[in-house]
Amino acid sequence: MRKDVRILLVGEPKVGKTSLIMSLVGEEFPEEVPLRAEEITIPADVTPERVPTHIVDYSVKFFSLSPSHFFQANVICIVYAVNNKKSIEKVSFVYFTKHERVPLILVGNKSDLVEHSSMETILPIMNQYSEIETCVECSAKNLKNISELFYYAQKAVLHPTGPLYCPEEKE
Ligand code: GTP
Ligand code: MG
User: Fold this and answer.
1) Tens digit of pLDDT for each residue in 79-130?
2) Cα 35 to middle of ligand 2, angstroms
3) What is the value of pTM for the model shown?
4) Are 116 and 86 in contact (CB under 8 A)?
5) Checking DSSP bridges between strand 53-56 and strand 40-42, what pairing results, if any?
6) Which ligand has the shortest distance to the CA of 13?
7) Rounded to an integer, what is the distance from CA 36 to the centroid of its chain?
8) In this prediction, what percent of the chain has a pLDDT beyond 70?
9) Do residues 164 and 101 touch, judged by C-beta distance below 8 A?
10) Protein residues whose CB sits closer than 6 Å to any atom of ligand 1
11) 33, 111, 142, best to mutate for ligand 1 pocket (most atoms within 8 Å of CB)
12) Which residues, listed in sequence order, are joined to residue 6 by a DSSP beta bridge?
């Protein structure tokens, strides 16, 4: 059994990475957030899978992303804003997939700002990269799917599905 899970949030500036973490921790939407949240550890007994979970925030403006961030992460949440198509188009999946094969989760934040779903835009990306475990649309503002998002991330590490961990079986 794993002793802990390390989740890294990445994505374009201002898509809401820090807000998502603060909403999870504070159970309300923070009007003001720092550029980068301190690393937090959620104790085992309050996580659905009973495993201590570290959540690591990242901001382009704060420090450059070093390979060690990727190597330490067990799962990477790629955050985009559903009202900003560029924020998904600019994500360089090639970059992520050439690193150690960790599961990726696509996170479409700010769902409170749009009526329609962004699934149409991300479906081709999902199909292209087998590392993408799942996708979720959420809102740090109205707390929609926040705990689910971190649960999916935890689950992707603890109960991997798909071809990720058996590449030799991949067609
Ligand atoms: P960087 O640290 O600069 O990379 O940005 P970030 O991805 O951490 O985004 P941050 O959490 O700082 O949020 C950017 C802006 O979006 C802030 O004004 C937030 O209040 C706003 N925001 C974040 N999440 C949501 C959301 O779910 N809905 C809405 N409407 N606004 C949001
Ligand atoms: Mg931030």
Assistant:
1) 999 999 899 888 877 767 766 678 999 999 999 999 988 888 899 998 988 8
2) 4
3) 0.90
4) no
5) antiparallel
6) 1
7) 15
8) 84
9) yes
10) 11, 13-19, 33, 35-36, 59-61, 109-110, 112-113, 139-141
11) 33
12) 54
Give 11: exposed, middle or buried? Use CB within 10 Å, 0-12, 13-18, 19+: buried
Ligand 2 centroid to residue 140 C-alpha, Å: 13
Cβ–Cβ under 8 Å, residues 18 and 60: no
Q: Which amino acid makes up residue 139? A: S
∠85-91-92 over CA atoms, to 5°?
145
Bridge-based pairing state of the strands 104-109 and 132-137: parallel
List the Cα angle 100/106/107 in 5-degree steps. 135
Q: Label each residue of the chain as H, E or C.
A: CCCCEEEEEEECCCCCHHHHHHHHHHCCCCCCCCCCCCCEEECHHHCCCCCCEEEECCCCCCCCCCHHHHHHCCEEEEEEECCCHHHHHCCCHHHHHHCCCCCEEEEEECHHHCCCCCHHHHHHHHHHCCCEEEEEECECCCCECHHHHHHHHHHHHHCCCHHHHCHHHCC
The atom of ligand 1 lying closest to the CA of 57 is: 8
